[in-house]
Each structure stands twice: as C-alpha cells, then as structure tokens.
C-alpha cells in the first residue's frame, strides 16, 4: 500500500513550492524463491520540500519538478533521503478568454 500527498502554492505563473509526503506499508508477506526470512513486511514514511517550474515550449509546455523526502519510522528497510526529478511535456494551457470592453453612453 502506498499513499502520496502534496500541497503547493504557485508564487508566479511559472514557479511553485510546497511540501510532499508518502506512506508505504507492505500488506502481504514476501513470497518466491528468495523469501527466506519468513513473515517479512516493511514500512516507511517520508516528507519533504518540492519546487516546480513551468517552461513554455511553443505549442507545448514543460514542467520540471524536484522533490526531496526525508524517510522516518522505517521497519525492515533502509531509511534516509531520496530525491526525485521529474520532467513532463504537455500541450500548452489555453490562454484566458479576452474580457469584453463594455462602454457606457
């Protein structure tokens, strides 16, 4: 079982910062030829900062995101820091509709 969460705020139209976290709990025992330790289950929690940047690429846009997790409360697995760098390309967001000009006579 794995649960991810994130909360962030855009500071400008392109820059975003926030917090991220996850919880991992193995809910079944290890199986297979390498499972020699018996009822072996693991868990870990992680929390940390994130920063993101949206960059224009013509008709597309790129999104670059950097997240760092400090792991804690680990059971039957290593704990420490892990860092994720993500880059995604998608269609550019549509521009906002033009506001009509209303003139009073």
Q: How would you describe this structure in keywords?
A:
about 100 residues, mainly beta, 5-stranded antiparallel beta sheet, elongated
Task: Provide an overview of this structure.
With 105 residues, the protein is an all-beta fold. The protein has no helices and five strands. It has strands at 2-10, 15-25, 43-57, 60-75, 81-91. A five-stranded antiparallel sheet has the order 1-2-3-4-5, with no helix packed on it. A hairpin with a 4-residue loop joins strand 1 and strand 2. The chain is elongated, with a radius of gyration of 22 Å.
Reconstruct the topology from this structure:
Blueprint: E1 2-10, E2 15-25, E3 43-57, E4 60-75, E5 81-91
Antiparallel strand pairs: 1-2, 2-3, 3-4, 4-5
Summarize the structure.
With 105 residues, the chain is mainly beta.
Q: What structural category do the secondary elements indicate?
A: mainly beta
From the alpha-carbon coordinates, what is the Rg to the nearest angstrom?
22 Å
Low-confidence stretches: none
Distance between the termini: 65 Å
Whole-number average pLDDT? 89
Give the helix tally. Answer: 0
Q: Write down the secondary-structure element order.
A: EEEEE
Strand order of the largest sheet: 1-2-3-4-5
> Helical amount among residues, as a percent range?
under 10%
Number of strands: 5
Shape: elongated
Indicate the proportion of strand residues.
Answer: over 45%
Largest sheet: 5 strands, antiparallel
């Amino acid at each position: 079982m794995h649960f991810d969460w994130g909360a962030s705020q855009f500071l400008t139209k392109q820059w975003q910062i926030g917090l991220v976290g996850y919880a991992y709990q193995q809910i079944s025992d290890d199986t297979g030829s390498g499972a020699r330790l018996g009822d072996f289950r693991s868990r870990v929690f992680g929390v940390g900062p994130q920063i993101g940047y949206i960059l224009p690429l013509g008709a597309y846009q790129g999104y670059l995101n950097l997240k760092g997790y400090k792991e804690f409360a680990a059971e039957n697995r290593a704990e420490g820091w892990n860092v994720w760098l993500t880059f995604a390309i998608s269609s550019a967001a549509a521009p906002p509709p033009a506001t009509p000009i209303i003139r009073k006579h």
